[in-house]
Amino acid sequence: xxxxxxxxxxxxxxxxxxxxxxxxxxxxxxxxxxxxxxxxxxxxxxxxxxxxxxxxxxxxxxxxxxxxxxxxxxxxxxxxxxxxxxxxxxxxxxxxxxxxxxxxxxxxxxxxxxxxxxxxxxxxxxxxxxxxxxxxxxxxxxxxxxxxxxxxxxxxxxxxxxxxxxxx
Length: 168
Description:
This protein is of the alpha+beta class. Helix content is 35%, strand content 30%. The strands form two sheets. Strands 3-2-1-5 form a four-stranded antiparallel β-sheet, with helices on one face. A four-stranded antiparallel β-sheet has the order 4-6-7-8, covered by helices on one side. The protein starts with a helix and ends in a 10-residue tail after the last strand.
């Protein structure tokens, strides 16, 4: 009987705590690279959408032979952008009214050097030089940079994380 009682011994509190600690460390080791990959994909998707909106604005303005404006609005969790046939100021609730190619980005922030970027209906080029910045946090941004004379669009990254883009 005494041998049976000794073999039925349970786990101690220290053994349970060590097991939980090891599982936590292993989970952090797995989740950290996974979060980086998800952030990387989120940034690449957002930059691709901004770049495609820029190209669509350029091509649509040239195709319609009419000036178009790209309007951008951002909140703390969502960013909106759309093309319009006028330069009137837009709010978050009115940005999609009579819009061409409206788009929504979640979990990223957008900022632009211009409140409304004009695309020339004659040549399709943007008026002025500037950039549209995309970021998840203030430390690492990706910029879609445009130039009015050449019409060139360039994508580059600032900060520690480049998300696969060249550095500005």
